[in-house]
Amino acid sequence: MTTQTVQALDVQGLEKSYDKLRVLRGVDFEVERGSIFALLGSNGAGKTTLVNILSTLLKPDAGTATVNGFDVARQPAEVRESISLTGQFAAVDEILTGRENLILVARLRRVKDAGQVADDLLARFQLTDAANRRVATYSGGMRRRLDIAMSLIGNPPVIFLDEPTTGLDPQARIEVWNRVKELAGQGTTVLLTTQYLDEAEHLADRIAILDQGRIIVTGTLAELKQLLPAATVEYVERQPTLEDVFLAIVGATGNDGAAGPDGGLGTDE
Fold this sequence. Notes:
By secondary structure, this protein is α/β, with parallel strands linked by helices.
């Protein structure tokens, strides 16, 4: 007899409306443990609403969702103990040092040996040399790394990263990408929302495209590329990018949203 594997995230038929505006229209997807799942969508597609439901900040109108095996509607306390949510802007105290920020969060979460936990995370995120500097002196990439480190205190099995590299320069984005890859490599499940197509292409094990409140396609990057016609050979064979896939699929549904600068999708809802 085989034991059924519990997915890190299991979303079935989620619906959510604000008055007459239907934001989610029956969203379905699953995320395997220890993987990076990227959620792509244009402005107003429903990404933020979906993350807020999964993190128990909103209640769905219909459908079900489980996080780490716990139902978001019936077991919200257990869900919150299983997750960490990192928003678009680093939630760090600029007056405190990096180490003091980590110790403060560890104490608030009643974690034992707060100082040792802080030191371990500083080393893990390559911030040891800046540990005793005020965060006001940190670069954007350092702040984001510290923010993600803070979200890992207590070792949550699932982490939601909402636009984790918004406003960062290319080098800082790569620094954050490396840390996110390490998280998944160590067993943490990551749900990533991003406006950068290249970010999803670089990081995600699987990608879902959310359009007009529905998941219209889910798969690996290779699987999504197969949805486009085969590349034609002139002088050089050009393979489709994730941007090509996204625009082709979303365009086919009638959404007139276009990609923004640097392969972005514009501001989320």
